[in-house]
């Protein structure tokens, strides 16, 4: 017997069996089911209001690419020193595939329950890595001409201004520019490191140890920190959900997802292996500083837009989540009222300020990236999708075939894996941060010290 359908716009009820079989396993809905889904969409077609549903799947692809392609490619090469080239490569592929699959679950669940807008309750934490990355770029380009706190504040202002554009369609050109910018910057560094006789951070005379290993020999803390760094590089898929809500055809999201994750995984693997092979333990963090001072300035100059757009997108996602949560169900959500604008700008500025504080509290890029992976993305990108699948396929547990029952319980394993990364990974990252404070690798919070130095790890 078909399960009970949703009865109100705000309720998330069990999805009908026909919808579950169609949209989750085949991506097909009947006409009546499509009409019912449209009624429950967060953003409706309204007369005289703001039309948020304007994003094509092609534009969604570029937005997805820019959401994912940034922090990972800047931090993975240093993570490979702990894990080795083989271990790091395996994790890039495994986490790329896993994050793609869990993104499919999230998107399917969202389309089955179109009243769901986002999983990004904790997404405001992520914006901090964007501010750190941009402040590093400003320091590198200016030869640390001003206090790092001021560069971070400028980064906060730039990112918040970009993030305050209301719709994803309107910031589409930023995502194109941002992706091309950061991709080109990384490519410059990849070429740059291969033209040097020895890494820029290594001793320039005499013998030196490159530190390139196929198999790493990491401690639990360093290994889990490196694992979390690689995991988070492709785990930002929960940020795709608000984009899906603004797509013209939300059920086209898989096209954008597969193109994005395929390109990102291939690029991460190629770029990271080349940089690690040529720099070894002397790789800079972020990796844009790995090819020496001149190339560092060139790459940060080229990648400046990309670093800003990365922070912009995450902050936009977080602000949109809070904005929708506050105004949902009221006319102010899609009409240009004073309350609409005050709420939207207030959300964006407030979350930007929180990200600024976090960026100054944890000033080393790789640790901030790893911490967001364990605290935020492990639950959101692994555990929660497991729960979502079990919710929509609960009948498989009792009446499904042996294969479907096995697949159902596989998602219990996903929940446990996410919990392990969240608990074990957070412990390891905090231990690494404390060790970095103890040995002077990290200065005090809100320090004016230069954060763009190409320090080997």
Automatic annotation (TrEMBL):
InterPro entries linked: AA_transpt_TM
Main location group: membrane
All copies of domain Amino acid transporter transmembrane, residue ranges: 54-129, 141-430
Location of the region described as Disordered in the Swiss-Prot/TrEMBL record: 1-32
Name this protein carries in UniProt: Transmembrane amino acid transporter protein-domain-containing protein
Subcellular location: Membrane
Transmembrane domains' residue ranges: 63-83, 89-107, 119-142, 148-166, 173-194, 214-244, 256-278, 298-317, 338-358, 364-388, 408-430
Pfam families tied to this protein: Aa_trans
Keyword terms, alphabetized: Membrane, Transmembrane, Transmembrane helix
Entry similarity comment: Belongs to the amino acid/polyamine transporter 2 family.
Keyword Ubl conjugation found: no
GO terms for MF: L-amino acid transmembrane transporter activity
Membrane topology: Multi-pass membrane protein
A GO CC annotation given for this chain: membrane
